[in-house]
Design goal:
This protein is α/β, with parallel strands linked by helices. Helices cover about 25% and strands about 25% of the residues.
Length: about 170
Amino acid sequence: MRIRRLRKRPAALEITAFLNLIVVLVPFLLSTAVFSRIAVLQLTLPAQSAAFDKLKAEDLHLEVVIRPDALEVGQRDAGLIRRIDSTPAGYDYRSLSDLMEQLKTRFPDKTDAAVLAEPNTPYDVLVHVMDAVRVGHVAQGPKAVRVDLFPDISVGDAPVRERKGS
């Protein structure tokens, strides 16, 4: 007698529904994913025209000018307060922060400052100067406590330096 065997074909895997789900899910997940965290500082741009007639003599209009060879800290109306020369290692941010802490003790109510940079100033230098102007560290016992110095920072272009001998 002849034995009849069923020929079994391998089962086909039906993945069409799964692929449809993936096609919809992948773009949705990619569009809602956070790839990196970006810290944003709130900056105010300088006004087009400042009202100089409303300024008082005791008001501090702090400006930090970033030059290639030094950091110049000054008051807009009164002139240069201190020039912090660069070291061979770069700018002296610690001295700038110390000066900002001294100015904050003399003018505790002031919160605004302008950081003026020359056109070829590296971004990293600008950020370090802004951090030194914005935040300081005060020793309280064994710990150093972070304090706000001049958190309202305006950023602008540095005035052109007068050339000697011209």
